[in-house]
Amino acid sequence: MPTIRVQEAPFDLGAESAALTAGRTDIGGLASFVGLCRADDGLAALVLEHYPGMTERALKKIADEAWARWPLTGCTVIHRVGRLVPGEPIVLVLTASAHRAAALEACAFLIDWLKTSAPFWKREEFAGGESRWVEAKATDDAAAARWAKPA
Amino acid sequence: MPTIRVQEAPFDLGAESAALTAGRTDIGGLASFVGLCRADDGLAALVLEHYPGMTERALKKIADEAWARWPLTGCTVIHRVGRLVPGEPIVLVLTASAHRAAALEACAFLIDWLKTSAPFWKREEFAGGESRWVEAKATDDAAAARWAKPA
Amino acid sequence: MKILYFAWVRQKVGLAEEDVAPPDSVGDVAGLVAWLAGRSPGHAAAFADPRQVRAAVNQDFATPDQKVAAGDEVAFFPPVTGG
Amino acid sequence: MKILYFAWVRQKVGLAEEDVAPPDSVGDVAGLVAWLAGRSPGHAAAFADPRQVRAAVNQDFATPDQKVAAGDEVAFFPPVTGG
């Protein structure tokens, strides 16, 4: 069953990976993706807002879908909220499976889908004090859409 | 420039990730794949053999190709050799980029290509004392071939 | 009916949440948006272009024709930008 | 010429490496395979089906028509199974 967390605290990729694989001998591949805050255009911080309750439900729904589509033995999704400075990790997706293709595909699916379907909003704060809400990207919709199942 | 290592010792995903991202604020995505030894069919151990010199060259060539094809800011490939028991990690691929698609694609490319183009040979040892060389898989060739550039 | 606002929708409305009792004629998300837009200049600014605003009813994404009723939790926010 | 063997090719030949001096008539990988196969029953067994054996010349993968010469390092092994 997937593990979902929304938290202000940082996460530890090594510890989360170890938790998924500890004591197991049926995992052939462990894929991960960590999204980090970049210092583009003088960015001083990202402030992430979420919808408590709905956000966790949405993450669980997406993770449950990955769990149903690929033969996973483990899946962890952690998304941070609050104020993050450049260099800090924002999101972790971790997938384990007997075979590498399932782990890699489920990991890519989850991060693409998170971008378009999980209720988080990013506000950028700049060194000059200016601030603006990040706009949703059409390229993210396209990345998520490629995972849509054929009708 | 990619980091390549062939070693008997285990590797530490958390430490290798930290090494790629430490002090940087230009990385938006960090993708990783860890291949582990599974206990299929009563497997007691995998013994990995390599071709010292050529193996490192082959890994470097594959990593350099990924470096040229995707805008990576970091790339680490570590492949273990020697005797590994089920549950132990065998191979690590780690890719960092400003954008997630480049990191995810380069990571998948590297592990697919390693399977078919890096001089490693796996021998399986079973609980009963029996032992056999793993045969190359057509599915691995197909996975690597999908990365071939159009002519 | 409990209404929640997030991100710039919250900032324009000037409230994170409010309890409202729309008239019986408000039966779906689109009707609720039109009614809420009349409550204050901030509400009007937030809903000035309804295509820029997404909705959820009882914590599930909702389309403009989704029914709403007393007791529902309805949220309005911009397109999501997580990940 | 230095010859290296890996995995089951090594086990069948019974050697990890050997120095050889093939006659001038041996000019490419295919010719070298045919000549090595005559050196012992182990060599013959290793090269019984040359399609199962891959080669590298001076640490680059090589095809059967790749030229070989004195001083080269030539390796024979099964299809790789890393990763």
UniProtKB/TrEMBL annotation, chains A, B:
SUPFAM superfamilies: Molybdopterin synthase subunit MoaE. It catalyses: 2 [molybdopterin-synthase sulfur-carrier protein]-C-terminal-Gly-aminoethanethioate + cyclic pyranopterin phosphate + H2O = molybdopterin + 2 [molybdopterin-synthase sulfur-carrier protein]-C-terminal Gly-Gly + 2 H(+). Its EC number is 2.8.1.12. Keywords: Molybdenum cofactor biosynthesis. Pathway: Cofactor biosynthesis; molybdopterin biosynthesis. Gene3D superfamilies: Molybdopterin biosynthesis MoaE subunit. InterPro entries: MoaE_sf, Mopterin_biosynth_MoaE. It comes from the Bacteria. Belongs to the MoaE family. Heterotetramer of 2 MoaD subunits and 2 MoaE subunits. Also stable as homodimer. The enzyme changes between these two forms during catalysis. Converts molybdopterin precursor Z into molybdopterin. This requires the incorporation of two sulfur atoms into precursor Z to generate a dithiolene group. The sulfur is provided by MoaD. This is Molybdopterin synthase catalytic subunit. It comes from Falsiroseomonas frigidaquae.
Automatic annotation (TrEMBL), chains C, D:
It holds the Pfam family ThiS. The keyword Signal does not apply. Keywords: Nucleotide-binding. SUPFAM superfamilies: MoaD/ThiS. InterPro entries: Beta-grasp_dom_sf, MOCS2A, Mopterin_synth/thiamin_S_b, ThiS/MoaD-like. PANTHER family: MOLYBDOPTERIN SYNTHASE SULFUR CARRIER SUBUNIT (PTHR33359). NCBIfam families: moaD (TIGR01682). Belongs to the MoaD family. This is Molybdopterin synthase sulfur carrier subunit. The gene is moaD.
